[in-house]
Each structure stands twice: as structure tokens, then as C-alpha cells.
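A common beginner's mistake is to predict each chain separately and then try to dock the pieces by hand. The better habit, illustrated here, is to supply every component at once so that their relative placement is modeled jointly.
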Amino acid sequence: MSNESKVKIALSVNGEPAEVAFAPHKTLLEVLREDLGLTGTKHGCELGECGTCTVLLDGTAVLSCLVLGVACEGRAVRTVEGMAQNGQLHPLQETFADLGAAQCGYCTPAFLLVAEALLAANPHPTRDEIKHALAGNLCRCTGYIKIYEAVELAAARMRGEVAQPTRESLYGR
Amino acid sequence: MLRLPTFRYLQPRSLREALAMKADAGPDGMFVAGGTDLYPNMKRRHQEPRVVISLMGIEELRRLDGWNVGTCVTLSALSSLPTFQRSQSAVAGAAQLVSTPLLRNMGTLGGNLCLDTRCNYYNQSYEWRKSIDFCMKKDGAICWVAPSSPRCWAVSSSDVAPVMVAIGAEYRLVGPQGERLVPAGRFYHNDGINYLTKQPDEILVDVRLPAPNGWDAVYHKLRRRGSFDFPVLGVAAWIQWNGKKVGEARIVLGGVASYPQEVAAAGAALEGAPLSDEAIAAAADAAYQPSKPMDNTDFDLSWRKQMTRVYVKRALEELRARH
Ligand SMILES: Cc1cc2nc3c(=O)[nH]c(=O)nc-3n(C[C@H](O)[C@H](O)[C@H](O)COP(=O)(O)OP(=O)(O)OC[C@H]3O[C@@H](n4cnc5c(N)ncnc54)[C@H](O)[C@@H]3O)c2cc1C
Ligand code: SF4
Ligand code: FES
Ligand code: FES
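With all components supplied together, the output reads:
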């Protein structure tokens, strides 16, 4: 692979313009992790079967393991690294941490981004709408309930409500 | 990392340009739309094109014009179109049942209708396949599902294709020889390797849905999980109503053969009479007889066959309930 010619593209990564050169058959996942040093995006199955590689491409949640890097010329990519602003965690990151919605954390960047895209389109989702939106992301640790609760709590806070976690979501019944 | 093999990637802006690029590349070239079928397959070395030609930059393929749907429309867009939800809801419903929201944001209608056939002995990594000395569909000589068989039995696993066959949609193809219109039912072959009648250098441009005109259709899907999984059985049922009676009917099965399989006897069992419990049972039985899933997907074979009866019955009951 070393002496193969590279392609160079310009794109926006987490709101910043970026230029990157890489072998033309690389996926966006590989370009992010290996050529841009952004290892927040995780690799799992690499076949579209787990969701852990999810990023937002022009605001839409897609699987970076099945998108070519060269297809991203001129487009806007958002990864988990872009979520915190000025040292402040995103409300979803806060609630995921507080409610135990992240355990091993391997699935977490993807869940955060899918939830962010959901809340941008629908600030007041029902539990069912959250479940459907997150139905392409596997988590082997949490059992999902804490993830749904964290999305609900963050949604409330992002709507400007003063919302606290319920006692049982912190300590159980 | 499970990496793609090396290839050249081309991004034409028009159909003409795409056809010229394919002509240049010859058999080494392949079209790609969303890539959710082709790229996993390339990672497992099922397909090894040296030139990959993306159709996503061609404006004409992304068009939605009345009942004509461009093939590069994503499944997400297809499943949330308001006009579809009213009239041709079975198409939107089947698109909504494909895999996951993330895959539906990427996967297209055209890719779904041209989806490669699937088999437990085939959808595996190169190393896995090598360890069983491969199979007839790629790199090998024998079929592990039916070792004495001269053909491959890989399964048609598209959710939308059975609906298109049932409602009588037409596909518009453009190739070096010009344009042709093919009824969905004649687009598929019952052969796991040569599963399409389309030539490799033809592009599927759009799908013409029949206008709403007293017909109704539903799609029911059997799979292990409520998300992610391919159908192990799909039932598309279409009825042209004639008052309270069934004028014409078509029942098409997905996931049981190498093509979306129409069971003519099941449709015939319904025609000319109201949709009574007896008529539904007769149609379900007629669909059960020729439903012959092979032991190469998820779930037990005989149970999948039995479920044909159950799913045909449910589909017809739903059509009756909303008439
Ligand atoms: C984990 C997983 C789960 C899945 N589950 C399902 C499921 O439940 N149901 C289901 O139906 N599918 C499923 N799929 C398959 C696939 O994601 C969808 O069928 C999708 O719609 C394919 O579309 P695409 O645009 O990504 O196809 P691509 O990968 O781009 O193309 C697929 C094939 O069609 C050809 N092609 C594409 N468009 C055209 C065109 N316009 N003209 C000519 N040839 C064309 C390509 O050359 C290629 O051979 C799943 C895939 C994965 C990875
Ligand atoms: S049906 Fe047989 S030849 Fe076809 S993919 Fe499966 S094992 Fe291979
Ligand atoms: S790594 Fe599993 S879906 Fe991309
Ligand atoms: S927290 Fe471990 S996989 Fe989700």
C-alpha cells in the first residue's frame, strides 16, 4: 500500500476546514482514525452490522465503515470530538455520564451522534421515537434503558427545562 | 481492519458519462449507489471490481416525479414520503423494514432491487470461505447447501423487490443499446449466481409505480430481530378490488428462492370472490406448497416454510381489514 498514489481532498471536520491525503480505497472510518488522528470514531464489524462507526455527514447519521473517503470531498463530517465546546461537554455527554449510559464506552460516540441528529430534527421525541432512531446501534453493556433515559434528560435540558434525573435512574428501584 | 481491495473510483455527473466509463472499464467495472451491499461484499472479496463507478452524482437518478422514483433515492427518503404513505404504502413500508435507520440513510432503492443474493456459506470473510474451499458462487466449485446440485441456491433477500413484483411496477433501464422498460417480475432469475436479467452495463434509472386505482398491497417480513436483519421470509400481497370482491390478486414470496417468487395459484385462489376466511386459508395453503426455503439462512428450515402459511394469512387479513 505504501507506494500507491494518494488522493487529496478538502472537507470540513467538526466545523474546521481540513485537507487530507490517503489511499483512494480507504473508508471514511479509516481516514478519520488513521489519517486525521481522530480515534473517537470506533471500528467494530466494519460491515454495517453494529453502528459503532457512525458519524454525521452533512448532518445525516451514516456508517463511516461503508463510506469512501474520496466521496467526502467538500462535505461536512461531524465526529464525537466535535461535541464538546470550549471545554464544556455537550448536554448528551453530560447525561450519558451521569446516568451510566456509557459503560465500556465503545458504542458511546455513535449513540451520542445519532441522538444529536435525532434531537436536531425532533427536540421532543417520545421513548418510541428514540428507540427507533437508535435501532441501528448495538450496545453490549448497558441494556439500552439508561441510554434512552439519558437522551430524554438531555432533550429536556436542551429545550431549556430544568430537569434532574429521576432517583431510580441513578440508584435503581 | 477489514479493508477494501484497491480500485479506481469514478464519479460521473450524467448517465452518458457513466455508461462511457463502464464501457472503458469493461468487466472490471461495477456501478455503486449507497455501497451498503457492494462495499461489505468487496471487503469479503465477493466482488472485486478494479473500477467502481458511483451513480450518486447523477441528478436524473435522484428524481421523484409523480409515481416514478429515481433509483438513487435513499430508503430513508422513500419510507418517509407523505404521498407514498397514503397510496403506495407497501413500498414505503418495505423500505422502512430494511435493516437499520443508518443503513437506510445510505442504501438506495436501486441497490435494494439489485441486491446480491445471500447464503450462510457465502456471506463470510475470504479466510472463512477459503477454509471450506469456497463454493460455486465465488472462487469454488461446489454448492455446500445442495452438494449434488448444478446450481447455486443463494437467497433473494431484498425487502422491496417482492413488493415491486406484486404491485406490477416497471423498471426503466438504460444501457449502451438504449433504453428498455422491464416489468419487475421479469427482472429476476431463479439462480443464485445470475439473479438479474439486467446486463452488467445497464443502469437501473427509475421505477414506475402503477397509479393508485383501486388496488392495495401490504408487505410482511419475518426476521430474528426487529432491526438489522435481512428477511428470512417476506410476503407481498396485492389485490385489485372489484367492489367487495377480489378482482385480481398476486402473492409474492421473498427470502425463499433466488428470486422474488410469485405463487400464481395463491392469487388465483382469491379471484372473483370476497376475501373470506376460507379463501384466505386456500391462498395461504397454495403459497405454502411451493415455498421451498433452503438451509442457508437464519432459523430452522421447516419452521420458515410453515411461517409462509401464517404470513400470507396475516397479509391478506390486513388487506381485508383496511378495505
Ligand atoms: C447489516 C446489513 C443489513 C441489511 N439488511 C437488509 C434488509 O433487511 N433488507 C434488505 O432488503 N437489504 C438489507 N441490506 C442490504 C442493503 O443495505 C440494502 O439492500 C440497500 O438498499 C442496498 O442499496 P445500496 O444503494 O447501498 O446498494 P449498493 O451496494 O450501492 O449496490 C448493490 C448492487 O446493486 C448495483 N446497483 C446499485 N444501484 C444500481 C443502479 N441504479 N443500476 C444498476 N445497478 C445498480 C451495484 O452495482 C451493486 O451490485 C443490509 C445490508 C447490511 C450491510
Ligand atoms: S447456495 Fe451453494 S453455491 Fe450458492 S452461495 Fe450457498 S453454498 Fe454457495
Ligand atoms: S463498524 Fe460496525 S457498522 Fe461500521
Ligand atoms: S457501553 Fe459497552 S457497548 Fe455500549
